[in-house]
Amino acid sequence: MLDRKKVLEKLKDAKPWDMVVIGGGATGLGIAVDAAHRGYRVVLLEKNDFAKGTSSKSTKLVHGGVRYLAQGNFKLVVEALRERGFLLKNAPHLTKVQYFVIPVYSRFYQWFYGLGLLLYELLAGKLSLGKTKILGKQATLDRLPGIRQKGLKGGILYADGQFDDARMAITLALTATTQGALVINYFPVTKLLKNDGKIVGVEGRDELTGDHYAIPTRVVINATGVFADRVLSMDQPNTTPLVMPSQGVHLVVHESVFPARDALMIPKTKDGRVLFAVPWQDAVVIGTTDTRLDQITDEPAALEKEIQFILDQFNRYREKPIGRSDIQSVFAGLRPLVYTAGLANTAKASRDHTILQSDSGLISIVGGKWTTYRKMAQDVVDLAAQKFGLPAVKCRTKHLKLHGTSKNSLLEQLITENPHLAKRIHPDYPYTEAEVVWAVRYEMALHIEDILARRSRLLVINARAALAAAPRVAALMARELENGQQWEQQQLEAFHQLAKTWLAA
Ligand SMILES: Cc1cc2nc3c(=O)[nH]c(=O)nc-3n(C[C@H](O)[C@H](O)[C@H](O)COP(=O)(O)OP(=O)(O)OC[C@H]3O[C@@H](n4cnc5c(N)ncnc54)[C@H](O)[C@@H]3O)c2cc1C
């Protein structure tokens, strides 16, 4: 259970912690799980909600990265395929095998991609998720209804993984807590505390009360994704940038628009990237783009040209084009790519992770993928333990089952005791009122957005449905949190502002 009051109480402990992790996305949460599992005393501080940043805006693939194979980055692909295998075993309740089909319009490309994907399967070794197969024209049409028929020669079928990114983040927060870590959201780190030029703690603020806390620690890890340079500049002004932000946008359409069980993989878009259309939670997620940005915010919004690009690229493969009115939701995320001087096209930037050690002792980690979060955590905790003389304990997360399998039975119990909570928050989607109550009580949900964007995924699947459900969610939350009507009103206004940026029209 995530219990904010308890965490705040324990944060007053004056005994130095072993490690403070700044950032509650995939990277930071993975580090907290690993470090706590080794027995270190760990605190994780997140300025917004867990996974509010990039970690809830992914394509939701647990994958080796077919694209990186094409780029010849075998090391990254092999590592990610291994991690894919571990994640599917350790979090079966949040992951699944997803089959993909690449439609091909030339025999050469059928063999070219076929061989590449055979290699992809072989590189996964014992952790392979399924066989790569060459498909004939009819089999391809059966698997990808509505696909452009003219010139179609066939397809290639291959297996990869899929997951629920934000739910995985909450699961990691719960796992870290079970292992003894303190994790808290809405708690920005505002300052690094130093003694003789060396970091000895951080200062953070509870966003709910405005109270400041000084938190002493031996190690500070900067796992703030695209915000890593801001934390670095708290340490040392005018440092060379570590991150090169690149925006990726997804469109979400109703499953009836593309009623396929398999995902479509477009191997080469106009800008030389790949594009996916993946069935996910009764909808289809289509993306993504790769747009270099100079400015970063907590609320990145899709650019008009990115929406049009995705529609155009998807429609190239369609018998009947889709349009803006088909879009139920649009979301944008920022890749924390490792800065490469002189690189104009972020699509070519490395997807590996990098660890930087500053003279003050600050350790920063950026880059990587959701799929490789566990290995990233292992690398950074190994380094921190060695550098700061923490007791030598081996990483043991490869086979650590993640929290969450018991959630449903307890949720059922909540419904049995309060049958009225079985009601849905929106008639077309399965999320119940009990889940709202649950998330407030046990998953640190504090705002409507936390419920609609990340504890449930309604905003991601259908922004209009999320807007329709918001008043009921606000009322349920207000009762649980003992907040009045004014709070409800403010929450609704804030959510309306946010949801507007998730609507395409
Ligand atoms: C469009 C797109 C698609 C992707 N698709 C996939 C995919 O399908 N599969 C895959 O494996 N990977 C995918 N990725 C990559 C993956 O999502 C990222 O690598 C990963 O989520 C990065 O996690 P992070 O924790 O480093 O960053 P974030 O999730 O951004 O977390 C950093 C956190 O730090 C917090 N923070 C910042 N400053 C402070 C502060 N001062 N105090 C406290 N907290 C602070 C932020 O609020 C944020 O929550 C995709 C990325 C994008 C952008």
Verbal overview:
This protein is α+β, with helices and mostly antiparallel strands and 505 residues long. It has three domains: 168 residues, 3-Layer(bba) Sandwich (FAD/NAD(P)-binding domain); 165 residues, D-Amino Acid Oxidase, Chain A, domain 2 (2-Layer Sandwich), CATH 3.30.9.10; 94 residues, Helicase, Ruva Protein, domain 3 (Orthogonal Bundle), CATH 1.10.8. The chain is built from 16 helices and 18 strands. The strands form two sheets. Strands 3, 4, 5, 6, 11, 12, 13, 14, 15 and 16 form a ten-stranded mixed sheet that branches. Strands 1, 2, 7, 8, 9, 10, 17 and 18 form an eight-stranded mixed sheet that branches. Strand 8 and strand 9 form a beta hairpin. The model has no long low-confidence stretch (mean pLDDT 95). The structure holds flavin-adenine dinucleotide. The site of flavin-adenine dinucleotide (FAD) has 40 residues, from helix 2 and strand 16.
